[in-house]
């Protein structure tokens, strides 16, 4: 057999696979049971009417043939209604919405349809560890777009390269930094795109999970944003549908057309009952969204309360289901794992700028969070 293609060797180590392996190894060591506060997996599934719609549709014979490759028009219309009513953004369902099997898929597909061999893709640092995978498969050059702790984790545009930039990825509310979009960030991104020709890709996965009375803020609500980029909307966090693999790329019609073209060649649509369930989620009662957000905000408040008397500076959490914690210099993530038997995600796993930080997940039960906080308080005392 010939050697495997170089594109596979360009792929970085899958961060979450490695993290889970470290946690599993620590959990296997004899001692009190380990508390895992490192994973970002929604602990509550979708509302009952969404599950019921999936089951109902799965019993219909029509569901088992090939679905429309480009997604059901009714699903696109439902998302367009949400964008119009909640985010103040007008979208043409036919030309400005692509239906995708989860936004993680779109991270790769967008890099492939935007970047050429050797062109630059700017990724936030700190940022979601799976962003580099698409850049590697596109054979593009990865450049870090440093986020500034002292500016509310806004990008340092003044440090960004400006030559041959194909795309810039942004993510607000941010994983891992847990901040909502700082004022002016989206307008600055549009200006950067207009000056360089780069496409903006905004990861809006946690868009509905914002706290302290904030209103969800779409990148596409910014003036001229749709002329320069797209946004990824995920059903995973808003509706607890992480395992269902349903998401969207919305905005610039040319980029949406490229995604649809690639998907026409790579897959044959998404299972109809999953799309029907998506319609039920988007058009049905929305009280579960508020309940989910309020639960994470309450847990956030509990974390701030518990850590207030420790050596940790006030943690960051304006949204998402994470808390971004600056660690005391004498506390390492390894010592938390091995000595205190509690796991949080290492900040350096999200980029060089994350060194010295840790990401704590709120997507756990109240009981699990309390056990973990007891140990963190001891470690940080």
Topology:
Blueprint: H1 6-10, H2 15-28, E1 35-36, H3 48-58, H4 73-87, E2 97-100, H5 103-114, E3 120-125, H6 131-137, E4 141-148, E5 154-155, E6 165-171, H7 185-196, E7 199-203, E8 229-234, H8 235-239, E9 247-251, H9 253-266, H10 272-283, H11 287-307, E10 322-326, H12 333-338, E11 342-343, E12 345-346, E13 357-361, H13 366-380
Parallel strand pairs: 1-11, 3-4, 3-6, 6-7, 7-8
Antiparallel strand pairs: 2-9, 4-5, 8-9, 10-13, 12-13
Helix pairs in contact: 3-10, 4-10, 5-6, 5-9, 11-13
What's a concise summary of this model?
The protein has 381 residues and is of the alpha/beta class. It contains 13 helices and 13 strands. Helix 3 packs antiparallel against helix 10 (272-283) and helix 5 packs across helix 9 (253-266).
Which residue ranges are poorly predicted, with pLDDT under 50 across at least 5 consecutive positions?
A: none
Taken as a percent bin, the fraction of beta residues is: 15-25%
| Content-based structural category | alpha/beta
CATH superfamily of the largest domain: Type I PLP-dependent aspartate aminotransferase-like (Major domain)
User: Main beta sheet, described?
Assistant: 8 strands, mixed
Name of the CATH class of the largest domain: Alpha Beta
**Helix fraction bin:** 25-40%
CATH fold description of the largest domain: Aspartate Aminotransferase, domain 2
The CATH architecture classification of the largest domain is 3-Layer(aba) Sandwich
- What value does the average pLDDT take? 94
N-to-C CA distance = 57 Å
| Overall morphology | globular
Radius of gyration: 21 Å
Please tell me the total number of domains. Answer: 2
Please write the string of helix (H) and strand (E) elements.
HHEHHEHEHEEEHEEHEHHHEHEEEH
> Helix tally?
13
Q: What strand line-up does the widest sheet have?
A: 2-9-8-7-6-3-4-5
Number of strands: 13
């Amino acid at each position: 057999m010939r050697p495997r293609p170089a594109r596979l060797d360009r792929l970085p180590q899958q961060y979450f696979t490695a993290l889970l392996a470290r946690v599993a190894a620590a959990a296997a060591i004899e001692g009190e049971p380990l508390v895992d506060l490192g994973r970002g997996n929604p602990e509550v599934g979708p509302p009952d009417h969404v599950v019921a719609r999936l089951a109902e549709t799965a019993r219909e014979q029509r569901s088992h043939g090939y679905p429309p490759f480009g997604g059901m028009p009714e699903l696109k219309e439902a998302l367009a209604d949400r964008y119009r009513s909640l985010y103040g953004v007008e979208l043409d369902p036919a030309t400005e919405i692509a239906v995708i099997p989860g936004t993680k898929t779109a991270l790769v597909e967008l890099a492939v349809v935007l970047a050429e061999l050797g062109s630059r893709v700017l990724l936030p640092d700190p940022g979601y560890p799976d962003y580099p995978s698409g850049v590697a498969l596109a054979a593009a050059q990865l450049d870090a777009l440093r986020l500034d702790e002292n500016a509310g984790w806004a990008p340092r545009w003044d440090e960004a390269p400006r030559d041959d930039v194909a795309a810039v990825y942004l993510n607000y509310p941010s994983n891992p930094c847990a901040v909502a979009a700082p004022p002016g960030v989206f307008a600055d991104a549009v200006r950067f795109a207009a000056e360089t020709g780069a496409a903006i890709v905004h990861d809006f996965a946690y868009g509905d999970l914002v706290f302290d009375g904030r209103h969800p803020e779409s990148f596409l609500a910014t003036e001229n944003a749709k002329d320069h980029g797209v946004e990824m909307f995920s059903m995973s966090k808003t509706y607890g549908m992480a395992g269902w693999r349903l998401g969207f790329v919305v905005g610039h019609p040319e980029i949406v057309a490229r995604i649809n073209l690639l998907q026409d060649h790579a897959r044959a649509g998404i299972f109809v009952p999953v799309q029907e369930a998506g319609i039920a989620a988007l058009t049905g009662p929305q009280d579960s969204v508020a309940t989910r957000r309020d639960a994470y905000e309450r847990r956030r408040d509990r974390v701030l309360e518990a850590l207030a008397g420790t050596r940790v500076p006030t943690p960051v959490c304006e949204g998402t289901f994470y808390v971004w914690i600056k660690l005391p210099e004498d506390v390492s993530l390894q010592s938390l794992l091995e000595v205190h038997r509690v796991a949080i995600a290492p900040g350096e796993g999200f980029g060089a700028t994350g060194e010295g930080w840790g990401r704590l997940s709120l997507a756990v039960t109240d009981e699990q969070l309390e056990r973990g906080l007891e140990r963190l308080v001891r470690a940080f005392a």
